Amino acid sequence: MYTRPNAPRSIGGVLDDGLKLWRDSLSKTWPLALLAQLQFAIPLVMLRMQLKDLPIVPSSNAFTAANAANTQLFLALIRSPTLVLAYVVTGLFAVVCYTAIVIRIEGVSTNSASPLRASLAGGFRLLPRVLLQILVFILSWIVIGVVLGIFAAIVGGIAAAGLGGAKSPLFTIIVLTIMAVFVFFLLGRLFLSFFALVVDDAGAAASIRVSWTLTRGCWWRCSAILLVLVIIGLVFALVVALVNGLIAASLGPISLGATVLAQLVGVAANAFLGSLYPAVLIAIFHDLKFRKQGVDLVGRVNALAPQ
């Protein structure tokens, strides 16, 4: 049975704690992850049944191999209001399932996991708040993108004019690198917003402030853990890609059987890994809360101490 740490841990300790939480919550989260993946896999298989000669493994001639009629059918399908509506509904239900996964993992971490139906009910209850948070992020990134675009245009103009030695390509590379670092810095400060919303039941804007507060001074620490997590995910993705390649080589890249098997492999892999990322991120979330609470407690004790 999983036991949540009662004190801050090292980077390796947090990662180990997250992996233990993933292991112990897997039996409670895989049905939700499987359900979410099936919502995408089934429409993809049905779409594939309507199209011919499109390989499941992308290649340089993937679309040129399809005939003109097939291409027109594909364009008609992706423009179909019914198909668009189906994917919107599917996406919303996937968000509900992912939220329910986080609720169940948080329950495992406190040894009070809620039933599957209650977790889904919590996902539906939080859906408007999650969508509002997504909207806030989209609008914020649009503003940031416009500002960065203006900045890049100004820098490009300076480089084109050759002012101040800016004619060197190295100057542009340095500026673009600074912009990329800025974006990654923001991502590193805001990546716990969703978990603050679900775990702490915070509002859409309040959860963003919680993430910003928790990650203050811990950017490098969180980045190191997330880097390891990304590497683990890439390894699994390569394994899935290898299996899909073998399926395509065995059954033929354009066969319906290959498509169905490839989707089954993807569904199984994602059902298995569906709780890995949220489990580790929840471990990071609680570790940072321990750290901030400890700092706040020390500050209060010092404030009460006689001068």
Summarize the structure.
The chain contains ten helices and no strands.
Describe the protein:
- The structure is a single chain.
- By secondary structure, this protein is an all-alpha fold.
- The chain has one domain (11-290).
- Helix content is 80%, strand content 0%.
- The chain has ten helices and no strands.
- It has helices at residues 11-50, 68-78, 81-109, 116-161, 169-190, 193-199, 204-214, 219-251, 256-273, 276-304.
- Helix 1 (11-50) runs antiparallel to helix 10, helix 3 packs across helix 4 and helix 4 runs antiparallel to helix 5 (169-190).
- The longest helix has 46 residues, at 116-161.
- The two termini are 47 Å apart.
- 24% of the residues are buried.
- Residues 55-66 and 295-305 have low confidence and may be disordered.
Q: Which characteristics define this entry?
A:
80% helix; 307 residues; 10 helices; disordered C terminus; mainly alpha
Topology:
Blueprint: H1 11-50, H2 68-78, H3 81-109, H4 116-161, H5 169-190, H6 193-199, H7 204-214, H8 219-251, H9 256-273, H10 276-304
Gyration radius, rounded? 24 Å
Compute the separation of the termini in Å.
47 Å
Secondary-structure content class: mainly alpha
Portion in helices: over 70%
Number of domains: 1
Outline the biggest β-sheet.
Answer: none
Order of helices and strands: HHHHHHHHHH
Mean of the pLDDT scores?
81
Low-confidence stretches: 55-66, 295-305
Q: Given the C-alpha coordinates, what overall shape results?
A: globular
| Count of individual beta strands | 0
**Strand composition percent:** under 5%
Q: Helical region count?
A: 10
